[in-house]
């Protein structure tokens, strides 16, 4: 008590933030875990008895298909982001310092604009009589409009468009830390371009890759508005399933179980990221 | 070849990133209703936007929510960052870890957990539930922004203030807060933008009593094309740009 | 006799189980310039932080003019600190930095203005009042830091390696400046440094610290000429250390065999017995280098010579392999005075300037070997 009075400021701040986190983070998450093992109830959303029905339902072929399809689209999104982002971050790290800052600024400007609006803008381009088709048709490249909208591809394009900066920024930061001397040293020791890439650049940028994967893969399973706008009814994400269960079907236990799948995926990715960083830290130190 | 290849590549990616935005802005001035072909310059969509009272109402609601969520999260997040930086206390790692988990969690996970909580405690879904939810997801970003600034600053500054006769509180007010002001501002701005942009969490925790802009846009763009959205998107873009410029300007000025 | 201003009694401090200060006693006298000297990690900065109130001792007490201030927060202690990196508030002008402490005392505006102007004039920065810290040079920032601390008229000024960030020439200027300030203000200065030259040239008294314990407390002259132990002898200045064998011990005098030369010396403060070995300490400037045909001294040859401007420092190997450091002032009558490597000489030293220390069982010997191996 004496110490509490001695540092009223410290105590007040800690009580405030702990209170906030316990009430608005820990308790709600425990509620979700609790809900996932309870029984669906049309009146009160959930009720006893406890059971694992919700988790069993995850393996119902109907939902398993949706989950696997969602995972596939998220994985494709991540892969495309990585394929675009890796060379991008690398190229960026080679530009002059002053221009680098400007380019990073330009990259995050769209991030500051409403993501719904940006997803909608893609619709303008991808629609059957949208910009892309009306540009390609006169050129004679295609005879009839391509069906782009409401496809799996459209969802992936939308997700890539929204999430690309989250892949590029962590990659950029590892490339920026990658000292030029290391590459010179590798060449000096007789390694060619390819072996330098495999033995030096890839291992050193791996934490950035994993951070980027983590920042892209998880949202790519949750951003339910992207399929809503671009994907139609057949290209659903885990996020759509959760949303439907909570807001429309009112099957809370199932929605909660689906959300726990996401949380477990996140925990796994975070663990992998930590591991990669620690390994690098030990080898470097 | 080593020079032009990376540059061409960068230019290409930027083109792809900016193309949809450019299309949006151009089409917001398009007379056409269908929105696919150019039928001449017009401000009619801006006009219809401002004549839409529900839309304007949602806009004000959103601005007010973003303003308050950013302010509350900057206050709490700033104080938390200070505590994490300056004090040794039990559970510090846990606190850090929890903030990190909140930041990394898919928004939808946060969204349903908050919905469950609000229904359990019987909180009416509306402004308060939105505020609590938005502050929660903004908090870690503010903490991280402020922590980054604090870690780059001389630890003896607080001691110097104490040495010259300032109490802990006075020192915080006269030295720490002014020094981390740019970071607080950046954190506030980040919170403001995150709040204004949020769809996922808001979908779950908002009620009919408090309609906000992203949800309004969401209901508009789900089906078909709505030219008003072009106009609204352009306005939001300009607004974000002005905010961003302003913050950069303040940051640069504070360095001088 | 001056009165004690600040007194530390039986002070111990450990960080994460590692002892930094060990049952340390120290009295600081009113008006003196006292320096805490020691290698990094010796506890000198922790000691200063205990005085300032940034740390509190695990055991022991700190008293200021008879009042116990062991647990008084820094803002209530009538003493101020000049920080190593100055710790100037980057968002405030020079004027506001200096005025900060007075504002905390809630002084009237007029008084603050007058006192800040005064102290800025004293450190010759009156024209820089409107500048921000980053617009000043290192030396100017240093002077602001000092002005900010002394404007509060503290009873005690604590200076934590305040000159370490400055280049050599500026450091010399600031040393003189600090001495002048201390005389003018009449404030007690507690100065922390690892630079023994700085400590000797500025202080009234020097505290030599090692591993949290006081090795010696005395005037610079005492520290240099009569070091209390081998650590002090080696840490402060260059040293020749020769083994001496006691041939006879009388009431007041002893006879010692030093490198085969028998000398009659005053009996040292520590107990000595016939036949025992002692360490004989001779500073390089006590050594005399003589011509090879001289009848005095021991034969050897020059193995190294270092031109130092005002002195010529040389290393001489005696015939038995003993290494001797000599430092000689240039003779104005002989401008060509120099040695060639390998040149034969004889070595002697001024009779009576030997300083005796008991033989210590110490790990320092390993360190010395290590140094030789490194070289």
TrEMBL record, chain A:
Residues 67-273 form the ABC transmembrane type-1 domain. Gene3D superfamilies: MetI-like. Coiled coil: none annotated. Keywords: Cell membrane, Membrane, Transmembrane, Transmembrane helix, Transport. It is a multi-pass membrane protein. CDD domains: TM_PBP2 (cd06261). InterPro entries: MetI-like, MetI-like_sf. It is found in: Cell membrane. GO terms for biological process: transmembrane transport. One of its GO terms (cellular component) is plasma membrane. The chain crosses the membrane at residues 12-38, 66-89, 101-121, 154-175, 196-226, 252-272. It holds the Pfam family BPD_transp_1. PANTHER family: INNER MEMBRANE ABC TRANSPORTER PERMEASE PROTEIN YDCU-RELATED, INNER MEMBRANE ABC TRANSPORTER PERMEASE PROTEIN YDCU-RELATED-RELATED. Belongs to the binding-protein-dependent transport system permease family. CysTW subfamily. This is Spermidine/putrescine ABC transporter permease PotB.
Automatic annotation (TrEMBL), chain B:
The keyword Cell inner membrane applies. It is a multi-pass membrane protein. InterPro entries: Bact_Polyamine_Transport, MetI-like, MetI-like_sf. One of its GO terms (cellular component) is plasma membrane. The chain crosses the membrane at residues 9-29, 63-85, 97-121, 127-148, 175-196, 229-252. GO terms for biological process: transmembrane transport. It comes from the Bacteria. Its main location: membrane. Keywords: Cell inner membrane, Cell membrane, Membrane, Transmembrane, Transmembrane helix, Transport. It is found in: Cell inner membrane; Cell membrane. Residues 59-247 form the ABC transmembrane type-1 domain. Pfam families: BPD_transp_1 (PF00528). PANTHER family: PUTRESCINE TRANSPORT SYSTEM PERMEASE PROTEIN POTI, SPERMIDINE_PUTRESCINE TRANSPORT SYSTEM PERMEASE PROTEIN POTC. NCBIfam families: PRK09500.1. Required for the activity of the bacterial periplasmic transport system of putrescine and spermidine. Belongs to the binding-protein-dependent transport system permease family. CysTW subfamily. This is Spermidine/putrescine transport system permease protein PotC. It comes from Marinobacter vulgaris. The lineage of its organism: Bacteria, Pseudomonadati, Pseudomonadota, Gammaproteobacteria, Pseudomonadales.
Automatic annotation (TrEMBL), chain C:
It holds the Pfam family TOBE_2. One of its GO terms (molecular function) is ABC-type polyamine transporter activity. Its EC number is 7.6.2.11. Coiled coil: none annotated. GO terms for biological process: putrescine transport. Keywords: ATP-binding, Cell membrane, Membrane, Nucleotide-binding, Translocase, Transport. The complex is composed of two ATP-binding proteins (PotA), two transmembrane proteins (PotB and PotC) and a solute-binding protein (PotD). Part of the ABC transporter complex PotABCD involved in spermidine/putrescine import. Responsible for energy coupling to the transport system. This is Spermidine/putrescine import ATP-binding protein PotA. It comes from Marinobacter vulgaris. The gene is potA.
């Amino acid at each position: 008590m004496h110490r509490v009075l001695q540092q009223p400021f410290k105590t007040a701040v800690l009580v405030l933030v702990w209170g906030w986190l316990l009430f608005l983070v820990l308790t709600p998450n425990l509620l979700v875990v609790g809900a996932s093992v309870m029984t669906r109830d049309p009146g009160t959303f959930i009720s006893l008895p406890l059971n694992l029905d919700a988790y069993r339902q995850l393996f119902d072929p109907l939902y398993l298909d949706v989950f696997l399809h969602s995972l596939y689209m998220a994985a494709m999104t991540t892969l495309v982001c990585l394929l675009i982002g890796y060379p991008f971050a690398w190229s960026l790290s080679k530009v002059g310092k002053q221009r680098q800052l400007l380019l990073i600024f330009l990259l995050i400007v769209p991030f500051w604009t409403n993501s719904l609006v940006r997803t909608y803008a893609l619709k303008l381009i991808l629609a059957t009589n949208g910009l892309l088709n009306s540009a390609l048709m006169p050129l004679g490249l295609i005879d009839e409009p391509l069906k782009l909208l409401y496809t799996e591809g459209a969802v992936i394009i939308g997700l890539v468009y929204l999430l690309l900066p989250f892949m590029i920024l962590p990659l950029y930061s590892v490339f920026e830390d990658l000292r030029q001397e290391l590459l010179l040293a590798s060449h000096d020791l007789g390694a060619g371009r390819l072996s330098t890439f495999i033995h030096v650049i890839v291992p050193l940028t791996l934490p950035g890759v994993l951070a980027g994967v983590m920042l892209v893969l998880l949202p790519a399973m949750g951003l339910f508005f992207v399929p809503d706008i671009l994907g139609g009814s057949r290209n659903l994400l885990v996020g759509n399933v959760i949303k439907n269960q909570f807001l429309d079907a009112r099957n809370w236990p199932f929605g909660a179980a689906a959300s726990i799948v996401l949380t477990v995926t996140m925990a796994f990715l975070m663990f992998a990221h930590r591991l990669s960083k620690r390994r690098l830290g030990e080898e470097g130190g | 070849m080593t020079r032009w290849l990376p540059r061409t590549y960068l230019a290409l990616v930027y083109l792809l990133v900016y193309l949809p935005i450019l299309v949006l802005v151009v089409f917001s001035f398009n007379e056409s209703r269908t929105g696919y072909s150019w039928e001449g310059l017009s401000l009619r969509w801006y006009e219809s936007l401002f004549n839409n009272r529900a839309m304007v109402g949602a806009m004000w609601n959103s601005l007010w929510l973003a303003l308050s969520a950013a302010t509350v999260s900057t206050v709490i997040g700033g104080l938390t960052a200070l505590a994490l930086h300056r004090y040794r206390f039990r559970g510090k790692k846990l606190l850090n870890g929890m903030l990190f988990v909140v930041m990394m969690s898919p928004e939808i996970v946060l969204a349903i957990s908050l919905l469950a909580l609000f229904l359990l405690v019987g909180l009416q879904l509306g402004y308060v539930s939105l505020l609590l939810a938005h502050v929660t997801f903004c908090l870690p970003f503010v903490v991280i922004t402020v922590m980054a600034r604090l870690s780059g600053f001389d630890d003896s500054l607080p001691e110097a203030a104490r040495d010259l006769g300032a109490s802990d509180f006075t020192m915080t007010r006269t030295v720490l807060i002014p020094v981390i002001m740019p970071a607080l501002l950046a954190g506030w701005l980040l919170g403001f933008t995150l709040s204004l942009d949020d769809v996922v969490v808001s979908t779950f925790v908002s009620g009919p009593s408090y309609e906000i802009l992203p949800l309004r846009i969401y209901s508009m763009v789900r089906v078909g094309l709505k030219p008003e959205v072009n106009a609204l998107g352009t306005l939001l873009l300009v607004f974000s740009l002005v905010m961003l410029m302003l913050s950069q300007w303040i940051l640069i000025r504070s360095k001088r | 006799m001056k009165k004690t201003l600040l007194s530390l009694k039986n002070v111990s401090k450990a960080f994460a189980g590692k002892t930094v200060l060990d049952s340390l006693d120290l009295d600081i006298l009113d008006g003196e310039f006292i320096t805490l000297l020691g290698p990094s990690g010796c506890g000198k900065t922790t000691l200063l932080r205990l005085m300032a109130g940034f740390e509190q001792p695990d055991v022991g007490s700190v008293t200021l003019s008879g009042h116990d201030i062991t647990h008084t927060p820094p803002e209530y202690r009538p003493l101020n600190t000049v920080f190593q990196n100055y710790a100037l508030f980057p968002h405030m002008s020079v004027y506001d930095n200096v005025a900060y402490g007075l504002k905390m005392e809630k002084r009237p505006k007029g008084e603050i203005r007058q006192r800040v102007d005064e102290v800025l004039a004293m450190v010759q920065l009156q024209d820089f009042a409107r500048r921000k810290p980053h617009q000043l040079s290192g030396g100017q920032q240093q002077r602001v830091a000092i002005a900010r601390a002394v404007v509060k008229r503290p009873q005690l000024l604590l200076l934590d390696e305040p000159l370490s960030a400055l280049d050599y020439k500026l450091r010399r200027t600031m040393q003189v400046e600090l001495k002048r300030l201390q005389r003018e203000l009449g404030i007690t200065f507690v100065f922390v440094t690892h630079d023994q030259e700085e400590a000797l040239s500025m202080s009234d008294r020097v505290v030599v610290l090692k591993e949290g314990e006081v090795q010696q407390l005395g005037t610079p002259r005492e520290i240099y000429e009569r070091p209390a132990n081998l650590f002090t002898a080696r840490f402060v200045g260059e040293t020749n250390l020769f083994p001496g064998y006691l041939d006879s011990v009388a009431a007041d005098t002893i006879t010692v065999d030093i490198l085969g030369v028998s000398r009659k010396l005053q009996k040292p403060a520590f107990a000595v017995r016939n036949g025992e070995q002692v360490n004989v300490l001779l500073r390089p400037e006590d050594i005399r280098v003589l011509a090879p045909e001289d009848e005095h001294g021991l034969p050897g040859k020059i193995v190294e010579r270092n031109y130092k401007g005002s002195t010529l420092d040389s290393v001489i190997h005696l015939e038995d392999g003993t290494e001797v450091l000599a430092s000689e002032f240039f003779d104005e009558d002989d401008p060509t005075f120099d040695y060639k490597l390998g040149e034969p000489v004889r070595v002697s030293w001024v009779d009576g300037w030997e300083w005796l220390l008991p033989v210590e069982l110490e790990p320092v010997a390993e360190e010395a070997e290590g140094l030789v191996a490194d070289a």
